Structures are given as structure tokens and as C-alpha cells.
Amino acid sequence: MMAGDMPGARAAIAAATANPPAHDPRARSHVATLSALLAAQPALARGLVYDHVRDWLRDALIAQMCTNVFGLIGFSGEVGREAELLSFTGMLLPHYPDDWWMMSIHALSLCETGQVTASLNLMECALALNPRNANGAHFKAHALYEMGETGPGLSGRLDRQL
């Protein structure tokens, strides 16, 4: 799926569904969640993500399906999705201590709910842990734009000090 080979992805998930891992509930949950996603059942997939992370909070492969504005929450089109995204990433954040990816994702959620200063502060921490975090740099530029500070983004210099 990540390589854009949807026929291959469908074949792989069909094989995994036909032979579910008998003694591995986490792997069975992976298969069910990915199966719903590939079957174009986003509401079901979203519910399965919530079920999965309730038991395996640090499973970023599944959790990331609901993070970001392009995930299952963000693309749901539902009123209140920004607040739900913030709640979801806020629930996960304590379980990812000093994790630049989760800090970046939560910072984006903060920005999407109008908490731009808090977003920039957290993004600075995330970028300090991994300065090559392209999503973090993008999210930071987005937050600066929201604050009306377009100069750093337009110049390509996002090293604004908070």
C-alpha cells in the first residue's frame, strides 16, 4: 500500500485475513484494521484504530492512521474533527516520551485548534530532537503562517526563536 501497489496490498491483506495469526491478538488487530482501510471503510477503520491503541498505545503503525489532518479523523469531514484529533494525539502523547514524531503530530493538533503558541513551543522541542523532521518543519511553517509570520517560511528560514 505504501508503494502504491493497491492490487498487491489487497492480495496481501486477503491472504492475512484468510490465515489470521492464531495466537497474536495484536497482529489480528493489525489485519482487521488494515483490511477495513483497504476496503474503503474509513469509519470502521477509525473505530478499529481506537480499539487497537486502547490495548497497544505505542503501536505507531496503527495509531498514525488517525493522526494528522490527512488521517481517518482529519478526512472524516465531521464537525469537531480538530478537537477529536487533539484529544487523540493528547491521549497518546504521554506514552511517547521524548518522541519527535508524536510531538510533531500533537503540535499540529494544537495548531489546528488555535493553540498556535503552544504548538510552536512543542514543535521547537520536536525539531530539537530531530532537525531533519520534514513534517515538523512543514507543521512549523503552517503555525507561523497562522500567526501571520510568513517571512520565515517564504525565506526558507524556519529557525525563529520563540
Give your account of this protein's structure:
The model has no long low-confidence stretch (mean pLDDT 88). The longest helix is centred in the N-terminal third of the chain and has 14 residues. The chain has 162 residues and is an all-alpha fold. Helix 5 runs antiparallel to helix 6 and helix 7 runs antiparallel to helix 8. It is built from nine helices and no strands.
What's the arrangement of secondary structure elements?
Blueprint: H1 6-18, H2 25-38, H3 42-55, H4 60-63, H5 81-92, H6 100-112, H7 116-129, H8 134-146, H9 150-155
Helix pairs in contact: 1-2, 2-3, 5-6, 6-7, 6-8, 7-8
In summary, what is this structure?
This protein has helices at residues 6-18, 25-38, 42-55, 60-63, 81-92, 100-112, 116-129, 134-146, 150-155.
